[in-house]
Design brief:
Elements: H1 2-29, H2 45-48, H3 51-55, H4 64-67, H5 74-84, H6 100-107, H7 111-118, H8 140-143, H9 146-169, H10 174-208, H11 210-216, H12 220-236, H13 243-253, H14 255-296, E1 304-305, E2 311-316, E3 329-334, E4 339-344, H15 350-365, E5 372-373, E6 376-377, E7 380-385, H16 398-412, E8 419-425, H17 433-449, E9 453-457, E10 469-474, E11 476-479, E12 482-485, E13 490-491, H18 499-505
């Protein structure tokens, strides 16, 4: 049975590895639709409704957060999401240094891959996350039962001996002894169930993450002993499924107390090692999606933090574009207070360019490499307004929704330690062109005063007249009478439009095109 069980585990692990490798191939080739990712509603509400998630499509079926998610622990998954969204991580043990991912990738070419394989859980469903509990230092069970802690080892030995001898020699008081043990059992029953729950959780974690514990441990022999003993203790919890044998054992020898005592000894010997490795596992688990991104794309490079608040790159591209479709574009040096206005025809690549910069910032801020070269970024506070939504339930119009978002961005752009970096795509679309120009100009002026770096796309060429703006554009090419796009950024303001061409292509007649 042991050989069969071991063989079964090996086969499951091999199948899990095969599926993992297949998903890695899909990530490399850009076949993201073939990867089994989670639905939007399966993300925490705070994540799926986060402005960055909405504007950058992070939580869609083919969004970055799902495509590159390789976490297997509940805490690791939550930390990965917060780390990427630049949200604060409450547990100080899970804070990270910016060079940690870089150090993992530098160890050797296959270290990251082997690390990922050790984190595989053979019996896990797709996107399933598991708890990995820590050991509680306080011992509330014995704290309330100090006398019982001293008394029960003696009574727990005398009691079964007396029962055996009593049955053999017809001694009296056996019913009284069983009654005393039964009363004791009732007094600690509720608290002992909590102890058994902890034993189950620890044993389950030891079993699921056995390979990971051993792989990350410095002393593997001690770690194996730790896992073996808690797993053996966890096997004892199976008796709780059968209430009658469980009751009989407690009536005879106070069985629960012996197991709780064993748990206490295990904690005293291995508690600090367990907690140390548990934190290491959770922290590593939260980093692995970003490590894996760097492992899959060795051409990716790490950015450098600018001491003066500059944002620039020799080249960059959106990380979710397949290799065959990637067009790298430079990012001119943007200093605090700078504004870049990007104009261009429809579908030429304006919004994708903004998202490429924003995604590169999020990756670099998470300590991960970016698809680009010579990326320099400030200590930033990122804001996006690319996709606004109205709300019938709240009675909020599309325009008012944008205004509220802009107001929130302006008021939050006050952190003196961080440079606000804003990505605005066709803002204030819900009003007339005259008021939109005036409002946008004033908003940009306020943001300049706050030393924000602003990227703005627009079809309104009048906005490009803002005097302090850096002007760039994308355009379409005409090849054999058909529109073609090279997605290359160019200096200056766009001089072409293609809205009427697109309408005609889709069969909508334009009767007075010359006008």
């Amino acid at each position: 049975m042991r050989l069969y069980s071991k063989r079964k585990t090996q086969i499951l692990y091999a199948k899990k590895t095969q599926n993992f490798l297949q998903e890695e191939i899909y990530r490399l080739t850009g076949e993201f639709k073939k990867i089994k990712t989670r639905e939007i509603w399966e993300y925490p509400e705070s994540v799926r409704n986060h402005p960055l998630s909405i504007d950058l499509d992070l939580c869609t079926k083919q969004g970055f957060l799902g495509i590159y998610d390789t976490t297997i622990t509940e805490v690791g998954f939550q930390t990965y999401l917060k780390r990427f969204l630049q949200e604060p991580i409450e547990d100080t043990n899970l804070h990270f240094q910016t060079l940690e991912i870089q150090n993992i990738l530098k160890k050797n070419s296959y270290f990251a891959y082997h690390l990922l394989r050790k984190f595989l859980v053979p019996d896990a469903e797709t996107n399933e996350k598991f708890p990995l509990t820590s050991i509680k230092t306080e011992d509330s069970f014995w704290k309330k039962r100090r006398f019982l802690k001293v008394f029960f080892p003696i009574w727990g030995v005398i009691s079964p001996l007396y029962i055996v001898l009593g049955l053999l020699f017809d001694l009296p008081l056996i019913p009284l002894l069983l009654l005393i043990n039964g009363i004791l059992f009732v007094t600690y029953r509720n608290d002992s169930l909590k102890q058994w729950k902890e034993i189950k959780a620890l044993a389950s974690g030891a079993s699921r993450f056995q390979k990971t514990f051993i792989y990350l441990a410095k002393n593997r022999k001690t770690t194996k002993q730790m896992i073996g003993r808690i797993s053996s203790l966890g096997d004892s919890s199976e008796l709780l499924i059968s209430p009658l044998p469980h009751l009989i054992l407690n009536l005879i020898c106070l069985w629960d107390l012996w197991k709780i005592k064993s748990l206490e000894k295990w904690k005293q010997k291995f508690g600090s090692l367990w907690n140390e490795l548990q934190i290491q596992i959770l922290k590593t688990d939260s980093l692995l999606p970003l490590v894996n991104f760097g492992f899959l794309f060795p051409e990716a490079s790490f950015g450098n933090v600018s001491t003066v608040g500059n944002l620039t790159a020799k080249s960059l591209v959106h990380p979710l574009l397949p290799k065959s479709s990637r067009v790298f574009n430079p990012l001119t040096k943007m200093e605090p207070g700078d504004l870049m206005i990007v104009t261009g025809s429809n579908m030429s690549g304006k919004t994708t360019y903004l998202r490429s910069i924003a995604m590169s910032l999020l990756l670099a801020g998470s300590g991960a490499p970016i698809l680009g070269t010579e990326f320099e970024f400030p200590n930033f506070q990122i804001h996006t307004l690319i996709r606004s939504q109205d709300s019938m339930e709240d009675g909020v119009s599309f325009f008012y929704s944008e205004v509220r978002r802009l107001s929130s961005i302006i008021h939050n752009a006050n952190d003196s330690e961080k440079i606000p970096v804003l990505f605005l795509d066709e803002i204030l679309k819900g009003t007339n062109s005259k008021e939109r120009f005036i409002a946008t100009r004033e908003i940009l002026s306020v943001l300049r005063e706050k030393r924000a770096i602003v990227f703005l796309t627009t079809h309104d060429l009048k906005l490009a007249e803002v005097p302090w703006a850096k002007r760039y554009h994308f355009t379409e090419l005409e090849v054999d009478g058909q529109m073609d796009f090279d997605y290359k950024i160019r200096d200056g303001v766009s001089g072409s439009t293609n809205a009427l061409k697109i309408l005609k292509k889709e069969g909508i007649p334009i009767r007075n095109e010359e006008e």
